[in-house]
Amino acid sequence: MNKKIIIFIVGSVFELIISCKNYADLKQSVEQAEQKVKGFREGVEKKVKQGIKQAEQKVKGFREGVEKKVKQGIKQAEQKVKGFLGKEVKDISDEIAKKLKEEEKDKKEEKKEQAKEVKKQKEKKEELMQADDPNNINHAQILQQANGQDSKPALEAVQQSANGGQQKAEEEAKEKEVRAKAEQEAKEKEERKRKQQEEEREKREKEVKAKIEELTNKIDEINNGIDSIKHRRWFVEDEKRFKVKATEVRDKVTGPVFDYFTNDSKGDTGEGAQTEESIYYGWGLTDLEEDEEELVKLLKELQDTRSSLRTKLNVGNQQKVVLQPDPELKESVKVSEIESDLEELKSKLEKVKNYLRDEAHFDTIKGYINDANSNRISEYDE
């Protein structure tokens, strides 16, 4: 038992010694670490101070360089401004002197011109007085004699001659004024006439453009009607119609084509007469040959295609006979029977539309319309 206690005590002593040694080692390590940290911190602080010092020196040098350059720039600018102002002042002085010299020269020339004009008027007056005197009397001598002696008849002759010259000059001036006024009135009249003609020309061109737009819009409307006949919905081509009423085809297609484009007579209005007369008749194209006029050819082709389609709408496919009523319409027609005619008619309409829209044909179309308007005026006068 005592042995165990002794061993325990000895072990505790050794453990205490080891702990003290570890503590001493730890304390020494901490002190060494603190010294290293202190040395590192001092090194960093030293480098930072050196960096700050170097940066301050660089900034100072840079600032001094900038200040030096700014001072040099200001000095150079002052020199340039001084030189520029000096030059400007000199130029302005020279310019003023030049202007004064020119004005003085102009005044001298103006005085010379006035003196010449006075002399010229004086000479002209003397010439007029001599021209009005048939005996070529020297007025100055007569007046001088009249002052020296009583020569009343001679003085009266001189006065009458002078009055005659003045009256003639006044008449010439008045005649000149009348001529100038007449010329001005003629010029104003000509200007009014030109302006009126220009306004009439613009008005006619505006009417022609409006008519072309009306016809091309009508063609678009007819083509939309063709699409609505072929398809249940014009934007869905797969939904085709099987049958349509003949009256629908007439009202949407053959009627408008006849009324607006292909009717070749004034009294034939069998299709419902949506307008008074077609362009074929109204523009006077019925008497023209298709070899001479492109539009005539296009309208005749459109007329034939339209007639072929119209015949298929009639009972028994009867053709129309001139001066007789239109044949009776079928109740309905199969779309497949008239589809090719509809497509061909659409193609012919597009050709007419392209012709109307072509700027190269504008003057030709304007000529058709002007001639048609002139013919209407002649008919009204009769």
From TrEMBL:
Composition bias, Basic and acidic residues: 100-128, 168-208
Molecular function via GO: exonuclease activity
Keywords: Coiled coil, Exonuclease, Hydrolase, Nuclease
Organism: Borreliella afzelii
Region (Disordered): 100-208
Protein name as catalogued: DNA repair exonuclease SbcCD ATPase subunit
Taxonomy of the source species: Bacteria, Pseudomonadati, Spirochaetota, Spirochaetia, Spirochaetales
Compositional bias segments (type: Polar residues): 133-150
Matches recorded under InterPro entries: Erp
Coiled coil: 285-355
Source domain of life: Bacteria
Pfam families the record matches: Erp_C (PF06780)
